[in-house]
Write a structure and sequence with these properties.
Blueprint lengths: L4 H15 L5 E11 L2 E10 L3
Antiparallel strand pairs: 1-2
Length: about 50
C-alpha cells in the first residue's frame, strides 16, 4: 500500500499518542518529505502546561 504525506503524518501522530508521557499536548506537523521509499515526518510536540 502506498501512503501520501497526510497519512504519514497521521501515523506519526497516532504513534505519539500511544507512547506519550503527557496527556495534554499540541501536535503539529512542520515538514514532510519523502526520501526514496521512506517518509520523513518532522513534528512539533509541546506540553500545553509548559
Amino acid at each position: 500500500m502506498a501512503i501520501d504525506a497526510k497519512w504519514a503524518a497521521i501515523i506519526a501522530k497516532k504513534y505519539f499518542e500511544e507512547t506519550k508521557t503527557t496527556t495534554y499536548f499540541l501536535f503539529e506537523t512542520s515538514k514532510v518529505t519523502k526520501e526514496d521509499d521512506l517518509w520523513v515526518v518532522n513534528c512539533d510536540v509541546k506540553n500545553i502546561f509548559e
